[in-house]
Amino acid sequence: MKNTRGFFVSILIIMVSIFACLFFLADPAVASAGGEAAGHHGANIGEILPVWTIIPFAGILLSIALFPLLLPHFWHNNFGKVSAFWSLLFAIPFLYAYHMEAFHQIIHIYLIDYIPFIILLWGLFTIAGGIVVSGSLKGTPTLNTIMLLIGTILASWVGTTGAAMVMIRPVLRANAERVKKVHVVCFFIFLVANIGGSLTPLGDPPLFLGFLHNVPFFWVTKAILPHMLAAAAILLVMFFFVDTYYYRKEKNKVKTVSEVKEKKVPLKIKGLHNLIFLVGVVSLVLVSGYWKAGHFNIMGVEMHYQNLLRDVGIIVMGALSLVFTSNDLREANDFSWFPIIEVAKLFAGIFMTIIPALAILKAGSNGALAGLVAMVKDPVHYFWVTGALSSFLDNAPTYLTFFNLALGKLGLSEAAVPAALAAGTITENPAFITFLKAISAGAVFMGANTYIGNAPNFMVKSIAEETGINMPSFFGYMIKYSIPILIPVFIIVTLVFF
């Protein structure tokens, strides 16, 4: 243990020194003005930071991708230290170079993004862990497809995280005797954890962010419904045939293992009182979007009372679930805290190291990614660029960046958004409707491309691994599943709609 800690500290000191030198070499004004040079404050930080500042972000992604494959025992015992290593590698030179501006950026992303993100994830994980579906559920292709369909429908109304946490355990339990089941979990991530959440602002954070910026609540339901139905239908049909192939292949093997006829146990759902707490969480999220209760400041970060009430309320809902749900029900679900601990530690590092990537992207044509932003002109560009970045970055700020880019290019203000989206009320800028459809679909759909593309993806992977399923690595998931399956689907969506 001491040797491991000493190794991390030694390497961290060396790399922080190198990284700090890069900051000063890239921006001499920092050295001469102690990080307080004009223009080093506020949103302008994205105009200053060079592309190489995302190296720690790339490092933590590569660590998530490679360590579980190459050094599984080391990773299992030290993933928190690895996350902290990459976080400090960025944070220490960043703070030293930019002082209070860097401190503000770090505090902002943790107070506004990371803490609410973890609270919501913890609340839904805790509540869903108390709902037990028992009975003779057999993972046949038909039943699996029906369960994925139910989860896909639920996702837009209780959120992709809520639907994923409620449905993943019944799906895993139904397929406990199946030999091949990795594909079931991967299609579950595609549909329930991502694409299913594209019909309302409750479904996925970027759509909720659009709702907060004057996009009418049910606009996205009408606008994205054809895209969602097309993508979901293709994937469900594809899943049914793939699952049928594996099921028939292993059917004889399964029969020989269980030749004794099992008694059919009636389907039962226990812990239904947790649905009250689940509805409570959804209601709190919705209210926080409508209610404007004012704000206060914490170390320069604007905190809104309605969001604070939401987060406290979610904690209360989770605590009530723990109090009123017996341990027997959680044990029946093989419930443990490891998945949420793993997600909390890894995403603490991801949110820290993602700061320069989001800041540069937010700077638009004035940032280091100006060339990429300049290429975004047509709906197909908005769909693919928003989607590609959402696969690796936080899809909520990515959505907002291109939402504002579309407004700017068309000369619209946020106040004009409802009129611009209302059918028949605008003739000068009809392109905005198509742009926003592309941005919305790209941000939500393509979160399925990687394990970190959307909040529940990594959680579903972790829960599946706890039940003994050997899930593919970060790159394995992309190479074996998301790229060969999802990309052709997205190409079809592009050709038909954009």
Task: Characterize the structure shown.
The protein is mainly alpha-helical. The protein has two domains: 108 residues, no CATH class; 365 residues, no CATH class. Helices cover 71% and strands 3% of the residues. The chain has 21 helices and four strands. The strands form two sheets. The protein has a two-stranded antiparallel sheet with strand order 1-2. Strand 3 and strand 4 form a beta hairpin. The chain starts with a helix and ends with a helix. About 5% of the residues have low confidence.
Q: In a few lines, what is going on in this structure?
A:
This protein is mainly alpha-helical.
Name the overall outline. Answer: globular
**How far apart, in Å, are the first and last alpha carbons?**
54 Å
Helical residues, percent: over 70%
Strand content: under 5%
Could you name the ranges where pLDDT drops below 50 across 5 or more consecutive residues? 28-43, 256-260, 424-428
What is the SS-derived class? mainly alpha
Give, in spatial order, the strands making up the sheet with the most strands. Answer: 1-2
- How many individual helices? 21
* Count of distinct strands: 4
Average pLDDT, all residues: 83
Largest sheet: 2 strands, antiparallel
Radius of gyration: 23 Å
Supply the number of structural domains: 2
Provide the succession of SSEs: HHHHHEHHHHEHEEHHHHHHHHHHH
Oligomer: single chain
